[in-house]
DNA sequence: TTTAATGGTTTAAAAATAAGAACCAAAAGG
DNA sequence: CCTTTTGGTTCTTATTTTTAAACCATTAAA
């Protein structure tokens, strides 16, 4: 079945994204960034307060979130402002994957 | 904002599911189960062949997939037949979460 | 041009996850 | 009742992930 080969790729391409959003610490970071409706972006130290983690730990999780294209940041002097990416293409990709899987399961019922 | 508290819960409730489907070995198991369009279910030894892993390793991953409500199984004597759950409610929950997140991001633009 | 602030990186430790060998239990078949 | 098949569960080891202390580089401020 040709479809399943495609599905396998869709799945593999989303691994990083899924692992990124599966972790509860990173979920807390994402929520904090969603809460920032002023949309200025949050700094690393803002996030250490939210999560009770050290700066290197936050930095590490932000790196994972950046690699998964979930967050982006801008520099202003020495300050880094993190925010959720404006177009997270993985969201739509994941939605399509879920539809694919549902379709196959329903077909086999 | 009341919505974000709800979003936080939706996220937390899906952690197990997201971690389950983020792992590439477990993705391989899911694909194999999707390929079983006869829908008889696959046995542990069928899956060891697909993935080149030991039986305890497969057993371990199946446990995680069961806890995430992704797979189910039936016994026939000593034989266990694993299959994808017929109604994976987490699929719809995740779809709604993605919509929620998109909505908030778009609103803030 | 010092001094302070900001924050990434490296390093090392701790914790969690994954893996297979060995073991155990249950059911089928002789 | 013994033997075989099947497959879950320890148990131990290896790997990966997470964490914070220490370190370093950059920019702003004094």
UniProtKB/TrEMBL annotation, chains A, B:
Entry annotated with the keyword Protease: no
Q: Which UniProt keywords apply?
A: DNA-binding, Transcription, Transcription regulation
Signal sequence region: none
Cite the HTH arsR-type domain residue spans from the record. 7-109
Asked whether the keyword Ligase is assigned, the reply is no
Alphabetical list of Gene3D superfamilies matching this protein: Winged helix-like DNA-binding domain superfamily/Winged helix DNA-binding domain
User: What's this protein's name?
Assistant: Regulatory protein arsr
Q: Note the PROSITE patterns from the entry.
A: HTH_ARSR_2
Q: What is the lineage of its organism?
A: Bacteria, Bacillati, Bacillota, Bacilli, Lactobacillales
Gene Ontology terms, MF aspect? DNA binding; DNA-binding transcription factor activity
One family from Pfam that matches here is HTH_5
């Amino acid at each position: 079945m040709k479809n399943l080969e495609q599905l396998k790729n869709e799945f593999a391409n989303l691994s990083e994204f899924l692992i990124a959003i599966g972790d509860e610490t990173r979920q807390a970071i994402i929520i904090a960034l969603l809460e920032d409706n002023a949309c200025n972006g949050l700094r690393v130290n803002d996030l250490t307060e939210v999560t009770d983690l050290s700066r290197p730990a936050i930095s590490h999780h932000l790196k994972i979130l950046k690699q998964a294209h979930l967050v982006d940041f801008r520099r202003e002097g020495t300050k880094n402002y993190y925010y959720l990416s404006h177009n997270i293409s993985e969201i739509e990709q994941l939605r399509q994957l879920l539809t694919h899987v549902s379709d196959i399961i329903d077909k086999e019922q």
